[in-house]
Design a protein that fits this description.
Blueprint lengths: L1 E2 L8 E2 L26 H13 L5 H8 L7 H22 L12 H21 L4 H17 L36 H7 L6
Antiparallel strand pairs: 1-2
Helix pairs in contact: 1-2, 2-3, 3-4, 3-5, 4-5
């Protein structure tokens, strides 16, 4: 049997008879060794198609290619580091091990923690193979990553210094904010405004 420990990069062959673990301490999954062709050019083409269609991003593509392209291994390791770290943090959380999340991890890693955490959390719920405590640990990691996200900076309004107005863009007078009108006390309560008299 071929196994991989959570967060480990390499597969290892073991004899199942040598395994002495409680059932809640391991997961078994079956998969093909690779859905990609054996030749590097075919892998580059297939992963390019997958990236173009939005199924994977650049880091996921590099991860799929790095074993086949040793010339680029150092670059692939650097590019995939946020993805690999996020995967380890999420897998640890699913094992009930909380890893503090900070903004120093970078936006890519924080995004992957949220994406992978959400995906594996859904998978764990479907498979019913995690305890509520483990799922809560995962939720804490995802929430921490969300809180550490850099705030989105709104684009400058055309009238602000440094803002660029595209050719043909018509600048009209500023429009007042729409008035919220409640016709009775029930609408007023749900909208948080005073009823119209």
């Amino acid at each position: 049997m071929i196994v991989r420990a959570p967060g480990a990069e390499f597969l290892e062959e073991i004899k199942w008879n040598d395994v002495d673990m409680r059932k809640d301490r391991y997961r078994i999954s079956f998969s093909v060794a690779s859905a990609l062709s054996g030749s590097l050019s075919d892998k580059i083409q297939k992963t390019g198609e997958m990236q173009d269609s939005g199924l994977i991003d650049a880091a996921m593509r590099w991860r799929a290619l790095k074993d086949s392209a040793p010339d680029f291994a150092a670059d692939a390791d650097r590019i995939t580091a946020p993805l690999e770290l996020a995967t380890k943090i999420v897998e640890d959380a699913l094992d009930g091990i909380y890893t503090p999340v900070s903004g120093e991890l970078g936006q890519d890693c924080l995004n992957y923690i949220q994406l992978i955490g959400t995906q594996l959390g859904c998978k764990a719920r479907l498979n019913h193979n995690r305890t509520p405590k483990q799922l809560e640990c995962l939720r804490k990691v995802i929430r921490a990553a969300q809180r550490k996200q850099a705030p989105l900076v709104p684009p400058l309004a055309p009238s602000q210094p440094g803002a660029v107005t595209s050719p043909g863009q018509i600048q009209g007078p500023a429009q007042p904010a729409p008035q919220v009108v409640a016709h009775n006390q029930y609408e007023a309560a749900s909208l948080g405004v005073k009823p119209q008299q």
